[in-house]
Amino acid sequence: MDESAVELRVRAIVEGLAERHVPGLDVPEPFGEGSVWEEIDDLLSETDLSPEEACDAFAAELAAGFGDSRLSYDLCDAVVNALFAWITTDKDHRTIPASFWEVFNAFDEGEYRHPGDADDVDPSEKYTRTQIRDFLSRTRTG
């Protein structure tokens, strides 16, 4: 599967997760039937991607979707948290890729109120959106 086909497949997976996502429902499974873990395992069986490359592909799609306001913060945060749990399980001694880590941390910054912020500050807008915009400006081509 070439790079553009992988991007399309990851986008389709994320869109499917978006359809099943229950906003505000925390882990273990805010997506109903069919977990993110199953989706990523299916992607790995369909492609020659490593687990790290698959996480980077998902991170790129989540960043692009959030940056373009196609995907909600809640959805992206839930998916990236599930991917983090998946990549950090001890199976196969996986490592956390740098791009994925950057996107994960950007969404993590939106999960809580930061010291000194007024009550009306939305951390996902102030911190996550800014960091995702910076990430996309460095990584988007064309």
Radius of gyration: 15 Å
Q: Could you give the order of the helices and strands?
A: HHHHHH
Counted up, domains total: 1
Write down the oligomeric state. Answer: single chain
- Give the end-to-end Cα distance, rounded to a whole number of Å: 21 Å
Helix/strand/pairing category: mainly alpha
Per DSSP, the total helix count is: 6
User: What's the overall average pLDDT, rounded?
Assistant: 88
User: Beta-strand percentage?
Assistant: under 5%
Shape: globular
Count of distinct strands? 0
Largest sheet, strands/sense/barrel: none
| Helical content band | 55-70%
User: Unreliable runs, pLDDT <50, ≥5 residues?
Assistant: none
What attributes characterize this protein structure?
single chain, mainly alpha, 6 helices
List the helices and strands and how they pair.
Layout: H1 3-20, H2 36-46, H3 51-67, H4 73-87, H5 98-109, H6 123-139
Summarize, please.
This protein has 6 helices and no strands. It is mostly helical.
Describe the structure.
With about 140 residues, the protein is mainly α. The chain has one domain (about 5-140). It has helices at about 5-20, 35-45, 50-65, 75-85, 100-110, 125-140. The model has no long low-confidence stretch (mean pLDDT about 90).
